[in-house]
Design brief:
alpha/beta; Rossmann fold; six-stranded parallel beta sheet; 4 helices
Length: 144
């Protein structure tokens, strides 16, 4: 399985993309460019609205309509149906569930994991995209 990761948003999203890349590589999958990938993983930020995320997802799916789509990150309730209009088989994992990315990649059916039971992200393997900058999560809060 080969995966392209597109990251939008803040340094937290950047770290989460690096962690998902680490998990993907750890399970023996390849990270590659969009053209060579089987799966397009778009890690979105919707803090300032859904418009940029939807535009980027639409652009990728227009260019690569047959590739599998997984949307991760800050996913609003409004984003899901908008993405499903673009790709009815899209999978979704919110920021609390990035540790489940390899299961989503290998699943034969679309997954939607949007629960809010945060797991620790501190000890996840990472593939750094910038060797000069390391993003380090400083809070590992659990909500009860």
């Amino acid at each position: 399985m080969s995966v392209y990761i597109k990251t939008m948003g803040c340094s937290a999203n950047q770290y989460e993309s690096e962690a998902m890349a680490g998990l993907i590589k750890e399970k023996g999958h390849n990270l590659t460019d969009a053209e060579s990938a089987d799966t397009l993983l778009v890690n979105v930020c919707t803090v300032k609205g859904d418009h940029k995320a939807i535009a980027e997802i639409r652009k990728l799916k227009d260019e690569f309509p047959r590739k599998r789509l997984i949307v991760t990150g800050c996913i609003t309730r409004e984003l899901v149906p908008e993405v499903q209009k673009i790709d009815s088989n899209a999978s979704f994992l919110n920021t609390h569930n990035i540790h489940k990315i390899t299961g989503a990649i290998t699943s034969d059916v679309p997954v939607m994991i949007l629960d809010k039971n945060p797991e620790s992200k501190v000890d996840l393997p990472v593939v750094r995209t910038n060797q000069s900058i390391g993003i380090i999560p400083i809070l590992n809060a659990r909500q009860n």
